[in-house]
Design brief:
Number of strands: 2
Helix content: over 70%
GO cellular component, one term: plasma membrane
CATH topology of the largest domain: Rhopdopsin 7-helix transmembrane proteins
Family: Belongs to the G-protein coupled receptor 1 family.
Distance between the termini: 97 Å
GO molecular function: G protein-coupled receptor activity; oxysterol binding
CATH class of the largest domain: Mainly Alpha
InterPro entries: GP183-like, GPCR_Rhodpsn, GPCR_Rhodpsn_7TM
Protein name: G-protein coupled receptor 183
Radius of gyration: 27 Å
Strand content: under 5%
CATH superfamily of the largest domain: Rhodopsin 7-helix transmembrane proteins
């Protein structure tokens, strides 16, 4: 009863909630910090991937091609982050107009579903390479993979372009203009059904595909290793296991919380009308799960590490060079330190000789 009264007090006379951004003071510090880290790590990691892949375009295979598209998607997303950082730093205030808000929203959701779809493609690619290389090997040919990538981008556009017809900004009573916030879409007809369908198509089908592919793939690797120890230690199997672990990690940590959060609230909306307290809790949880989802830009380079040999070699070379430089600096400073110690010892010995009667 007390919660209901508080929820009703959070509503204005026109029925809109006034407590949805009560966490503004905390969010304007933590969210810009989070996205600054995502911007820096994501841009450097994905730019390095493209730098490694670019000289080897003629030797590109299916895995590298999917990884390249994933890296391009992540870089486009990171380049749009400064505007989001500004928005959060101003306390959920967007002074840049409706058009730029729609552009940044489009890039945001394109990155989300391009990431999901290309990771699904990577999973199926590994499945075919290990389990069905003879029957479906043609789908791993570079020319066919190029067409698959084009279809994926068209699918992503089909999933995201309808958003351009919706209003993305909203003028709040306190003068703030919000951009790409869930309450801005509350007036859209059949919103729960639309979002449940989007979760099913954009997350449900890919995650089932990935889980089925990797279950069969892991079973195949297990029996292959059991029958032949050399097979278990092969580079192809290690590569497949590395990609499996990274893709599952990204899905569990980044994409699952957001889509589960959307799904549970939309089901509640179908059953009854949530009050302002529930909507505020959902709004806070959305900000948190969206932060987690965007962290996939930082985790994707780990997929390249296992999927792309060139990327792995480049990283290892950089690490070895850094260790070598650190070791060289230690070696260079050590003789000098020894010389100083010897000189100081000689001075002490001479001084003690002069003072001895």
């Amino acid at each position: 009863m007390e919660a209901l009264q508080h929820g009703n007090s959070s509503r204005e006379q026109n029925g809109s909630c006034t407590n949805l951004y009560d966490h503004r003071s905390t969010a304007r510090i933590l969210m810009p910090l989070h996205y600054s880290i995502v911007f820096t790590v994501g841009l450097l990691g994905n730019a390095l991937a493209l730098h490694v892949i670019r000289p080897n375009l003629k030797k590109m295979n299916s895995t590298t091609l999917y990884s390249t598209n994933l890296a391009v998607s992540d870089i486009l997303f990171t380049l749009s982050l400064p505007l989001r950082i500004l928005y959060y730093a101003l306390g959920f205030h967007w002074p840049l107009g409706e058009t730029l808000c729609k552009v940044s929203s489009l890039i945001f959701y394109m990155n989300t579903y391009a990431g999901v779809n290309f990771m699904t493609c990577l999973s199926v690619d590994r499945f075919i390479a290990v389990v069905l290389p003879l029957r479906f090997g043609r789908f791993r040919k570079v020319q066919n993979v190029k067409y698959i990538c084009i279809v994926v981008w068209l699918l992503v556009l089909a999933q995201t372009l309808p958003m351009l017809s919706m209003p993305m900004t909203n003028q709040e009573e306190n003068g703030f203009i919000t951009c790409m916030e869930y309450p801005n879409f509350e007036k859209v007809d059949n919103l729960p059904v639309m979002l449940i369908g989007a979760v099913f198509l954009g997350y449900g089908i890919p995650v089932v595909t990935i889980l089925v592919s990797y279950s069969v793939l892991c079973r195949k690797l297990y029996f292959a290793a059991k029958s032949n120890h050399l097979t278990g230690k092969s580079g192809r199997n290690k590569k497949a296991i590395g990609v499996i672990c990274c893709v599952i990690l990204v899905f569990v940590v980044c994409f699952s919380p957001y889509h589960i959060d959307i799904l549970q609230y939309m089901i509640r909306k179908l059953l009854y009308s949530p009050d302002c307290m529930e909507l505020h809790s959902f709004q806070v949880s959305l900000h948190f799960t969206v932060c987690l989802m965007n962290f996939n830009t930082c985790l994707d380079p780990f997929i390249y590490f296992f999927a792309c040999k060139g990327y792995k070699r480049k990283i290892m070379k950089l690490l070895k060079r850094q260790v070598s430089m650190s070791f060289s600096s230690v070696v260079r400073t050590s003789p000098e330190a020894c010389s100083r110690d010897a000189a100081e010892g000689t001075e002490i010995h001479l001084a003690s000789s002069r003072t001895t009667p």
